Amino acid sequence: MKVITAAGFLVLVVPIESLRMTPGMVLEGSDRRSALFGGASAFVATIAQAYDLPDLPYPYEALEPSIDAATMKIHHDKHHATYVAGINGALEGKEQPPIADLMTDAIKGGVKGIRNSGGGVYNHDLFWQVMAPKGKGGEPSKDLSTAIEKAFGSMDSFKEQWAAAAAPAARFGSGWVWLIVDGKKDLKITSTPNQDNPLMKGVEGDEGLPILGIDVWEHAYYLKYQNRRPEYVSAFWDVVNWNQVNSWYTDALNGKAPQF
Fold this sequence. Notes:
three-stranded antiparallel sheet; alpha+beta; 260 residues; single chain; globular
């Protein structure tokens, strides 16, 4: 696991559960908020309440040919890391709640570091998990398939509407396209600019609980597809992790957004 500090330093952290307590040792945080300890004396270096850069759940090349290894490496190691450093800087010395909890008032709060960097962290945390190597992501569950047919007519129609929402003419410039569960527990396709997402109150588009998302910033596809965004959007379906989407759909019906 890696933590990106506000100063941009990359620090490797050791999970708490792998550490043995010794006299004088102090642990702060839990799970992804871990501590780094060095030296055999009283020196204790801790990183408390820091958002981290999660490891990819697969190798950089695992999503080829849909997404190339070079793009994955730059996207994760550089772009995502920048958002992690940004949110840690914006909240340095302040409480750092779970990243999903920050999303609700990210727009209305008026703090650009939370909206832009925090949104970037949440969106990318989700993005890596909604993908899996080809043939490893399973299929939509019976419940999700039924909901897709109810909302869009068929899976093919859903993909056509998704492609239309992701097209450059529809989402001009940078942004995301999402499949959400709305307040009526129905599925909708929506699109947000920049690093906004449907959890944010006042967001452009529909609010709701995201269960699937695609990054249509150019850095997500340009090395392989250049200006051919529709080809990237089409290839995305080969690496969708339906097993994860199914789980998040069930959670969303119970009012729970994806947590990281």
